C-alpha cells in the first residue's frame, strides 16, 4: 500500500549492507515441526524477496555452511496481481514479489529479513500455504452470476457510474489472504472474512447477480458469517489492492439488517 | 427475503443490543443520579430513596440490569477469548481500539463484580471498607460512599472504572452503528466516532466529578455550580453506621 502512494519523494537505501541475512521459517511437511534457517546473500541492487529466494535456491547452504534443501514458496505473476506469493515478511503480511529488499531494510534497519508463511492457513511446506479455505468461502457466498444458458441475452442492464466504480474496486480482489492473516478475529476458519464479504457486495451490486442476494445474505448470517467482524479494520489497512473492505462489510451489514434481520417484518 | 439466522449471529446481535439499550441507558441514569452528590448528602440520599420507591423495581433490576449484564459480560468473555490480538504487529489506531474494547471488558468484569458485591449487597468489606450496602440504606447512602472514598485507592479505582465504562459504552455505540449498517463510509465513521467519544467523555466527566463529590463539595467543579457552597462534607464518623 505504501509502495504505490507515489506523491512523496521515495526514501532510498543510500548505504546498503554487503550482504543480507534471510531467516526463513521452514517446515518439511504438514504438521511437522517448524524451524528457522538463516541464509546469507550478497547484496545487489534491485533485490526483492523472490529474487533472494531464487538466489538461495541456486545455492541452498545456510549462513553457517550447512547444506540444506531449497526453501519452497509459491509464485506466479511477479507483479502483485495473482496473490499467490503472499507471506509474512518481517512480521507483516504482504506479497513477496513486490517486497523490495531496499525498502524492507530501510524500514527495519540492519540487514535482516524474516520470511514466514501465513499463519492462518494450513502450511503445506516452508513458505507455501493452502489458501483453499478462501475459495470455499467464495463458493459459500455464491460469488458468481448465474446464467440460464448460452443463448443470446442481449445487452446487460445499465448501471450508474458510481456503482461501476465501487464494483471495480471489489473486483480487484486477488484472494491473496492478507486481510484474513491480519484479522484478529479470523483463526481456524471460524469467520468467512473480509475477502468473501467484499465479493458478496460485488455480486449483490450486480443487476443480475442481485437475484441470488438472499442466498448470499443467508451465508452472511451463518455461524461463521459477518457478525464475527470485530471492526479492528486491519483488513483495509493491509489490503495490497486498496479494496474498501470496511465499506463492503458495513454496506453488507446494512443489507443483512434490512433484509435478513428485519425481512420477516415484511411477511 | 433471506431468513436463516444462526446462533452466533443472534448471540452477537443480542450482545450489541444488551450493551446499549438496557445497560447503556442504565449507565447514563446511574451517572446522572451519582451527579446529585454534587449538591450534598441530603440530595443524594433522597435520590437513592426515590430509586427505592420506583415501581416494578425488582423487575427493572432483574430484567433491565442483572440479566443483560450477566449475558453481556459472559458472552463478552467468549468474544474476548476468540480474539487473536496482533496490535504489536499491526499497530493501527482502530486495532488498538479493538484491543482496548476487549481489555476494558475484562477490567469491567472485575470492577463491576466488586462494585455490585460491595455497594449493592455489602458483601465485600476488605481493605477497611464498610460492610453496609448503599441499596436499602438510603438515609446513610452518602455517608457510606464518602467513608469508602476516603481511601484514595478505592476512589482512583472508581474513577478508572467510570472511565473504562464510559469508553467501553461510547465505542460500543460506534460499533453498534457500523455493525447494524447505520454508519458506512469513512467520513461517517469518523463523525460517528467523534460523537461517541464526546458522549463517553461527557459521561466520564459527570461520573468522575460525582465520585469526587463524596470527598469534596461539588467534586472538582467550582462551587458556584452547586447548590451548597459553604457547607463542608459532614464528618464521617464510624458511629453513623
Structure description:
By secondary structure, chain A is an alpha+beta fold. Chain A has two domains: 128 residues, Beta-grasp domain (Ubiquitin-like (UB roll), Roll), CATH 3.10.20.30; 128 residues, Orthogonal Bundle (Fumarate Reductase Iron-sulfur Protein, Chain B, domain 2), CATH 1.10.1060.10. Chain A is 32% helix and 13% strand. In chain A, the strands form two sheets. Chain A has a five-stranded mixed β-sheet with strand order 2-1-5-3-4. In chain A, strands 6-7 form a two-stranded antiparallel sheet. In chain A, helix 6 packs antiparallel against helix 7, helix 6 crosses helix 9 and helix 7 crosses helix 9. Chain B has one domain: Fumarate reductase/succinate dehydrogenase, transmembrane subunit (3 helical TM bundles of succinate and fumarate reductases, Up-down Bundle). Helix content of chain B is 66%, strand content 0%. Chain B is built from eight helices and no strands. In chain B, helix 4 packs antiparallel against helix 5. Chain B is globular. Chain B starts with 6 loop residues before the first helix and ends in a 29-residue tail after the last helix. Chains A and B meet through helix 7, helix 8 and helix 9 of A and helix 1, helix 5 and helix 7 of B.
Question: What key phrases describe this protein's structure?
Answer:
heterodimer, A: 267 residues, alpha+beta, Ubiquitin-like (UB roll), Fumarate Reductase Iron-sulfur Protein, Chain B, domain 2, five-stranded mixed β-sheet, two-stranded antiparallel ribbon, 9 helices, B: 241 residues, mainly alpha, 3 helical TM bundles of succinate and fumarate reductases, 8 helices, 66% helix, globular, disordered C terminus
- How many beta strands in the DSSP annotation of chain A? 7
**Unreliable sequence segments of chain A:** none
CATH class annotation of chain B? Mainly Alpha
CATH class of the largest domain in chain A: Alpha Beta
The percentage helix of chain B is 55-70%
CATH architectural category of the largest domain in chain A? Roll
Low-confidence stretches of chain B: 237-241
Q: Helix count of chain B?
A: 8
Number of extended strands of chain B: 0
- Main beta sheet strand tally, sense and closure of chain A: 5 strands, mixed
The CATH topology of the largest domain in chain A, please? Ubiquitin-like (UB roll)
Amino acid at each position: 500500500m505504501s509502495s504505490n502512494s507515489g506523491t512523496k519523494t521515495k526514501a532510498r537505501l543510500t548505504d546498503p549492507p554487503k550482504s543480507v541475512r534471510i531467516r526463513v521459517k521452514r517446515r518439511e511437511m504438514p504438521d511437522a515441526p517448524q524451524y528457522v534457517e538463516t541464509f546469507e546473500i550478497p547484496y545487489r541492487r534491485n533485490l526483492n524477496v523472490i529474487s533472494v529466494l531464487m538466489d538461495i535456491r541456486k545455492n541452498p547452504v545456510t549462513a553457517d555452511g550447512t547444506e540444506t534443501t531449497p526453501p519452497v514458496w509459491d509464485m506466479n505473476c511477479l507483479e502483485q496481481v495473482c496473490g499467490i506469493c503472499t507471506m509474512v515478511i518481517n512480521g507483516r503480511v504482504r506479497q513477496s514479489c513486490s517486497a523490495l529488499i531496499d525498502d524492507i531494510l530501510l524500514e527495519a534497519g540492519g540487514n535482516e529479513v524474516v520470511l514466514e508463511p501465513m499463519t492462518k492457513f494450513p502450511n503445506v511446506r516452508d513458505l507455501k500455504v493452502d489458501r483453499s479455505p478462501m475459495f470455499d468461502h467464495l463458493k459459500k457466498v455464491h460469488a458468481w452470476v448465474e446464467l440460464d444458458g448460452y443463448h443470446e441475452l442481449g445487452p446487460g442492464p445499465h448501471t450508474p457510474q458510481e456503482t461501476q466504480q465501487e464494483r471495480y474496486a471489489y473486483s480487484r480482489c486477488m484472494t491473496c489472504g492478507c486481510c484474513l492473516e491480519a484479522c484478529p478475529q479470523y483463526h481456524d476458519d471460524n469467520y468467512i472474512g473480509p475477502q468473501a464479504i467484499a465479493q458478496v457486495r460485488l455480486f449483490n451490486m450486480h443487476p443480475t447477480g442481485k437475484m441470488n442476494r438472499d442466498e448470499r445474505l443467508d451465508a452472511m448470517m451463518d455461524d461463521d458469517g459477518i457478525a464475527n467482524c470485530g471492526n479492528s479494520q486491519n483488513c483495509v489497512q493491509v489490503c495490497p489492492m486498496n479494496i474498501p473492505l470496511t465499506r463492503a462489510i458495513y454496506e453488507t451489514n446494512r443489507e443483512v439488517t434490512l433484509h435478513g434481520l428485519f425481512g420477516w417484518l415484511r411477511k | 427475503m433471506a431468513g436463516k439466522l444462526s446462533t452466533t449471529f443472534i448471540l452477537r446481535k443480542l450482545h450489541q443490543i444488551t450493551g446499549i439499550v438496557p445497560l447503556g441507558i442504565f449507565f447514563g441514569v446511574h451517572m446522572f443520579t451519582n451527579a446529585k452528590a454534587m449538591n450534598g448528602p441530603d440530595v443524594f440520599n433522597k435520590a437513592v430513596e426515590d430509586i427505592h420507591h420506583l415501581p416494578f423495581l425488582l423487575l427493572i433490576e432483574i430484567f433491565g440490569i442483572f440479566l443483560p449484564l450477566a449475558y453481556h459480560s459472559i458472552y463478552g468473555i467468549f468474544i474476548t477469548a476468540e480474539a487473536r490480538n496482533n496490535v504489536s504487529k499491526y499497530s493501527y489506531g482502530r486495532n488498538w481500539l479493538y484491543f482496548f474494547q476487549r481489555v476494558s471488558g475484562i477490567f469491567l468484569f472485575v470492577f463491576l463484580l466488586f462494585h455490585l458485591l460491595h455497594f449493592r449487597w455489602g458483601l465485600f468489606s476488605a481493605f477497611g471498607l464498610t460492610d453496609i450496602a448503599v441499596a436499602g440504606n438510603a438515609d446513610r447512602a452518602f455517608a457510606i460512599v464518602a467513608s469508602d472514598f476516603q481511601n484514595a485507592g478505592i476512589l482512583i479505582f472508581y474513577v478508572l472504572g467510570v472511565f473504562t465504562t464510559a469508553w467501553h459504552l461510547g465505542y460500543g455505540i460506534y460499533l453498534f452503528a457500523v455493525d447494524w449498517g447505520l454508519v458506512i463510509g469513512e467520513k461517517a465513521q469518523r463523525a460517528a466516532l467523534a460523537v461517541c467519544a464526546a458522549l463517553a467523555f461527557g459521561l466520564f466527566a459527570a461520573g468522575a466529578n460525582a465520585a469526587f463529590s463524596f470527598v469534596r463539595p461539588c467534586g472538582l467543579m467550582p462551587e458556584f455550580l452547586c447548590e451548597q457552597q459553604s457547607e463542608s462534607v459532614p464528618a464521617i464518623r464510624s458511629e453513623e453506621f
